[in-house]
Amino acid sequence: MKAIVLYRAGGPEHLCLEERVIPSPQKDHVLVKIKAFGLNRSEIMTRKGYSESVHFPRILGIECVGEIVEDPSGEFATGQKVAAFMGGMGRDYDGSYAEFAVLPKSIISSFESDLPWSVLGALPEMFQTVYGSLHVALKIKKEETLLIRGGTSSIGLLAAQLGRSEGLKIISTTRNPKKIHILLENGADEVMIDDGNLSQKIKDRDFKINKILELIGTSTLKDSLNSVITGGIVCMTGMLSEQWSIKDFAPMDFIQTASYLTVYDSGKKRVNGLYFQEFIRKVEANKIKPVIKKIFKLEEIAEAHSFMESNHSGGKIVVLV
């Protein structure tokens, strides 16, 4: 099989295309023929060596869609369409940047759909992250105001659509005025230009922000915590700033009185596969329109990483295998 192997941390050119023997599944694992996968910012961080727990060589990739080739337990039928969601994939063991992968059954969800693989490949992690952030972490309620910081990311765009469909008022942010129309076309009621000081702009405009989905990360987190109402919740889900931690973190200074800070990590808290099937049905019915910016082939993985790192995407990047 063809696989993309990373032998040491570095730039996109370190992603090496090579031939490998197709692996065999052991107990509680399945062999999946990978049809497509989405790219994720965390894979850039792993490629750069920021993920200290990851040992090389490693096949990256934290999600995929494909078909079951072999399941020793017989639980999944050969040819069954499945999606795989994180759970150490591409970090603790080899992931989706390949034609085949052996994956634990615990991260597999079966589904039915006639959507093309290029669309299905964009969905697993994007859906799980958005659904988990909104419902599990932020506990959204109808008529609340949700601010999405980092709105032009694939997660931000889908969060706006899902939030709007569930009766929320959506305020999305971008640093680039040229991208305002993208946000308005994907569910945002209003758009704010993010110069790093949103809290003052929110006070000036007398916005009452109930919940914030923080996708930029640690560099803007304190400002986001200053932007919610008393009793409001900020969920840090993304790290577009590529910073894991906050130096000299002082909780009493950082978190406002009676406001709440939480996180959502889809690798630690999974969403039931039934919700994923429901989400696919909404996509099939054109009720939700995932934004797919560009599609690459497996052998174009270095180019795909460079494109993702350029921050020009404004949607999900998908690789067809």
TrEMBL record:
Family annotation (InterPro entries): ADH-like_N, ER, GroES-like_sf, NAD(P)-bd_dom_sf
Question: Which CDD domains would you find in this protein's record?
Answer: quinone_oxidoreductase_like_1
Q: Which residues cross the membrane?
A: none
* Highest taxon of source: Bacteria
SUPFAM superfamilies noted in UniProt: GroES-like (SSF50129), NAD(P)-binding Rossmann-fold domains (SSF51735)
What keywords are assigned to this protein? NADP, Oxidoreductase
Residues in the signal sequence: none
Q: Which residues form the Enoyl reductase (ER) domain?
A: 10-319
Q: Which PANTHER family match?
A: QUINONE OXIDOREDUCTASE PIG3 (PTHR48106:SF18), QUINONE OXIDOREDUCTASE PIG3-RELATED (PTHR48106)
This chain belongs to the protein called Zinc-binding dehydrogenase
